[in-house]
Amino acid sequence: MAGTLTRWEPFAELGELRSRFDRLFEDFAEGRERKWVPAIDVERDNGNLIVRADVPGMKPEEVKIEVEDDILTVSGEHEERKEEKDKTYLRRERRYGSFSRSLVLPAGVEAKKIKAKTHDGVVEVTIPLPKEAKKESVKITPSAG
Questions:
Q1: CA-based nearest residue to 109, from 31, 49, 39
Q2: Residue 112 confidence (pLDDT) above 90
Q3: Which CATH topology does 34-81+93-128 take?
Q4: What is the distance between the alpha carbons of residues 122 and 139, in angstroms, rounded to a whole number?
Q5: 3-state SS string over the chain?
Q6: Domain limits of the chain?
Q7: pTM for this predicted structure
Q8: What is residue 38's predicted lDDT score, i.e. its pLDDT?
Q9: CB 62 within 8 A of CB 121
């Protein structure tokens, strides 16, 4: 029986674990502004890194994307509608407030070439990956003396 080898990414689950802890502790932060953390997906596609973040109901101008010191930060603020504040809710699960998600980018990414667009409540950031340096073998012969 042929098996498939899967590359183990030891830190891949840490992002999911952090999200779960964030959601767990949000419920204990009563009296504070409700904070939400959009879900994100990151994939490699055709020499690019694609980051997608769920930002339902947000306009493109409400989403801020910055790159500093090889760290991509997607942030924004989703306001609660004024006319809804006086309503009596039986259940309230929709999130509002500010958010910020940051990801470390590979070294050598040119920030000016990064592009972003929004569609169907998702912001998509396309990051061209730098060309990998060719690995070459160098043979060094020690000299006498």
A1: 49
A2: yes
A3: Immunoglobulin-like (2.60.40)
A4: 50
A5: CCCCCCCCCCCHHHHHHHHHHHHHHHCCCCCCCCCCCCCEEEEEECCEEEEEEECCCCCHHHEEEEEECCEEEEEEEECCCHHHCCCCCCCCCCCCEEEEEEEECCCCCCHHHCEEEEECCEEEEEEECCCCCCCCCCCCCCCCC
A6: 34-81+93-128
A7: 0.62
A8: 84
A9: no
